[in-house]
Amino acid sequence: MKEVQVDVGRCIGCKSCEIACAVEHSTSKELFGAIFEATPPRKRIFVQDAGEKCVPVNCRHCEEAFCVRVCPTGAMYRKGALVLHKRNLCIGCGFCELACPFGAITRSPGSKLVTKCDLCPDRNIPACVSACPTNALSFITPEEAQRKKRRTLAEQMCLP
Question: Domains in the chain and their CATH numbers?
Answer without folding.
Answer: 60-116 (3.30.70.20)
